[in-house]
UniProtKB/TrEMBL annotation:
<keyword id="KW-0805">Transcription regulation</keyword>
<comment type="similarity">
    <text>Belongs to the LysR transcriptional regulatory family.</text>
</comment>
<dbReference type="InterPro" id="IPR000847">
    <property type="entry name" value="LysR_HTH_N"/>
</dbReference>
<dbReference type="InterPro" id="IPR036388">
    <property type="entry name" value="WH-like_DNA-bd_sf"/>
</dbReference>
<keyword id="KW-0804">Transcription</keyword>
<feature type="domain" description="HTH lysR-type">
    <location>
        <begin position="2"/>
        <end position="59"/>
    </location>
</feature>
<dbReference type="GO" id="GO:0032993">
    <property type="term" value="C:protein-DNA complex"/>
</dbReference>
<dbReference type="Pfam" id="PF00126">
    <property type="entry name" value="HTH_1"/>
</dbReference>
<dbReference type="Pfam" id="PF03466">
    <property type="entry name" value="LysR_substrate"/>
</dbReference>
<dbReference type="InterPro" id="IPR036390">
    <property type="entry name" value="WH_DNA-bd_sf"/>
</dbReference>
<keyword id="KW-0238">DNA-binding</keyword>
<dbReference type="InterPro" id="IPR005119">
    <property type="entry name" value="LysR_subst-bd"/>
</dbReference>
<dbReference type="GO" id="GO:0003677">
    <property type="term" value="F:DNA binding"/>
</dbReference>
<dbReference type="GO" id="GO:0003700">
    <property type="term" value="F:DNA-binding transcription factor activity"/>
</dbReference>
<protein>
    <submittedName>
        <fullName>LysR family transcriptional regulator</fullName>
    </submittedName>
</protein>
Length: 303
């Protein structure tokens, strides 16, 4: 079994580019760093570094080991945190997955409230748009795929329907109306706000197909904040979830979309465990309460 500390020192050398840089960053001597590298090379049976001028350079095997060990080191760091919690008397830990717009709109207030009620609770927040499949949060706030389907070991709890809206420059002629058929923006310059092939992108493209056209994305912003900035600059319009368009600069306005209205369904996946998880259940209650009262979500009732 590989020694996690040696692996951590090795990763520091790869990241820093030299033994001396790793020694400075880790507060060690260069001799101690070199000894760890030699021991790791013996453990793995790999040539990890080769001479390059006056220094060393990682081999391809070393680069692959550094990349593949990232997740393992992250999990080891989490285990260290668990041990620290136990040592310091903190009574619980909750792992919560979320996507970016739900994270910005919901999580700060909910986690503040939850940790006020449970001051000994440690909450780990994981952006599930980027997280590894090996991450198993206690609660995962997700967008349901249009084709349906759950996740093994989790209970599915619907939270909210989140309609998409048109985000347009405030000076645009469309800004004067309260709602617009989706087909009426087919000729506009479109700014994407999600990755191609993602759930959100597929929902928009499917709705456009139902309206009889295929959108042409001239700008691939691929996330909401940049897309809103492009719209504010007058580059084009964007069709995005209302939750992502809840806070807009004065140069931008949002409009209801109809005929059809693209909608994403948001749910909580709650991990099923042998022992009840009170903090997970409490957060679920908060999520359900929040989405039972739309005005508490920071959303405008007119969009």
């Amino acid at each position: 079994m590989l020694d996690p500390h040696r692996l951590s020192v090795f990763r520091s050398v790869v990241a820093g580019g030299s033994v001396q840089a790793a020694a400075d960053n880790l507060g060690m001597t260069s001799s101690a760093v070199s000894q760890h590298l030699s021991a790791l090379a013996r453990e793995t049976g790999l040539t990890l570094f080769q001479r390059a001028g006056r220094g060393i350079a990682p081999t391809q095997a070393a680069l692959e080991l550094a990349a593949q060990s990232e997740e393992a080191m992250s999990q080891w760091g989490r285990l260290d945190s668990v041990v620290a919690d136990l040592r310091e008397g903190r009574s619980g830990r909750l792992s919560v997955g979320y996507f970016s717009s739900a994270g910005a709109a919901w999580m700060p207030a909910l986690i503040k409230r939850l940790t006020f009620e449970h001051p000994d609770l440690t909450v780990d927040l994981v952006l599930n748009e980027l997280a590894s499949r090996n991450i198993t949060p206690d609660i995962d706030v997700v967008i349901d795929p249009p084709e349906g389907g759950g996740r093994a070991g989790y209970r599915h709890v619907p939270l909210a329907s989140d309609p998409f809206v048109a985000v347009v420059p405030a000076e645009h002629e469309l800004a004067k109306v309260r709602s617009i058929p989706l087909a009426d923006v087919r000729g506009e310059t479109w700014v994407s706000n999600d990755l191609a092939g993602s759930l959100g992108h597929r929902i928009v493209v499917s709705a456009c197909a139902a309206a009889g056209f295929t959108p042409r994305f001239r700008v691939q912003a691929q996330e909401h904040f940049s897309a809103i900035a492009f719209v504010a600059a007058g580059v084009g319009i964007s069709i995005m979830p209302r939750l992502a368009a809840r806070l807009l600069p004065p140069e931008v306005t949002r409009i209801r979309v109809t005929d059809p209205t693209p909608v994403r369904e948001i749910s909580a996946l709650v991990r099923e465990t042998a022992r009840p998880n009170p903090s997970a259940q409490r957060l679920l209650e908060m999520l359900l309460e929040l989405n039972a009262h739309p005005t508490r979500r920071g959303r405008s009732a007119d969009a």
